[in-house]
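re: ur question from earlier - yeah i can do the single chain one, its not a big deal. heres the input i used so u can compare w yours
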Amino acid sequence: MSDIHKTLAESLFDLERALRELELWDTEPPSNQALASTQPFAVDTLEFYQWLQFIFIPRLFQLVEYRAGMPESCSVAPMAEEYFRPRPESGEAVVVVLERIDRLVTSAP
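and the output i got, formated as tokens:
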């Protein structure tokens, strides 16, 4: 496993941990219809934390598993900042991890 894939996997585990600590981790997945949204961040069918849990994290873990190339860009932290704007102190850990993931993916060769 390359260093970038290893670091990404560690960051994804950190993201999961941060969401769980905020009690923003669902035990049941949303419906297939909700997951099939074509809107950015599935804003029409999912809460942002659900999008992270059920779409973002699994997709990035696939990149790790298959040692695939990274997307050309990644800018999820600004959405997290917006989502947590009413309670910024509670989402700070999530934003920090997402900033790390954004930098890591964007700087990947």
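The chain has a mean pLDDT of 94. not sure if urs matches, ping me
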